[in-house]
Amino acid sequence: LDLLAAAGCRAASPMQLIAPGPAVLLASALAARPAARGGRPFCMGGGFGAAARDTFKYSGKVRPGKQSPKRSVPKSISKPDYWKDGQPKARGPMLPWQIQKKSEADIEGMRAAGRIAREVLDLAGAAVAPGVTTEAIDALVHEAAVSRGAYPSPLNYHGFPKSCCTSVNEVICHGIPDSTKLRDGDIVNIDITCYYGGYHGDCSETFLVGEVDEAGRQLVKVTHDAWQAAIAYCAPGKEYKGIGAIIEDYIAPHGYSTVREFCGHGVGSVFHETPNVIHARNNEPGTMQVGHTFTIEPMICEGVEKHILWRDGWTATTKDGKRSAQFEHTLLVTPDGIEALTARTENSTPFWWEK
User: Fold this and answer.
1) Partner of 346 at 20 to 30 A CA spacing, among 62, 89, 120, 166?
2) d(CA 92, CA 307)
3) Contact 326, 318 (CB under 8 A)
4) What is the mean pLDDT of residues 141-147?
5) Model-level pTM greater than 0.85?
């Protein structure tokens, strides 16, 4: 991923960033794809008339389902530069400590995109129920975005085949919507980004499916509260690296771990740009200034934070098969502190602990 590589990052999959290691690593987005790592194709014939057998060693119970064809977007809707060939052309700042300050016009555009993303996420969350497929959620998301004049940003971003990410149970992030039916007791993160008026609004929440056990409910609440503590820290002059320390300290008493290999990011007219927002202790450069826009999106795990990547090149699951939860806002640094551009509204479904 040339933009992120130039910013001193590498990619596990192109949708999100990975924190740089001790040395700056330059890697293309395709470096994480199975073919680029020498992996064999997913579908291997077993002889004439034989069904392909999936020999991948999954860590938990979630399996890939069948995907429908990629959805189309009306010509009348403004599209990001990657919509056709999957390759982003616009670039943000080149170095990790270079962070763009948004103009007043930029901020108003981002507020509009953020409001749409919030509306779409609320609709998607309201559809979550046992028996509903993640494909049906994606169809709803696509239609909701398009009906508001927005392009669903994940669609064809580095080839991603769907309009949102649906990550169930042990899936940390980038789950691809398909024929999988949600089951009573599942948790599912729905990650929505909408491109509207030249800007991206990015947000996600983890939802309960039916009756979830106490351990799952607690994981979701602690993840939410750690995320909120990190947001409360933000203000002009604060260091970006402080976000990770707050999250790590908050979850430690619960025995959870925080994923280091996928992180938050700057956002604006470019889907992913600087700063890199790492959700664990780190030495990432950068200080918050008025006009910065970025996401905080911690992925908190019941067990280990290490992941495995499915053969689709996108779906990242916990290595031990235990559950993971996530929340995300697009945030703006203001003179007084922080503004969530994807803030919940009175129409948002209350969290389980608010009912």
Assistant:
1) 166
2) 28
3) no
4) 98
5) yes
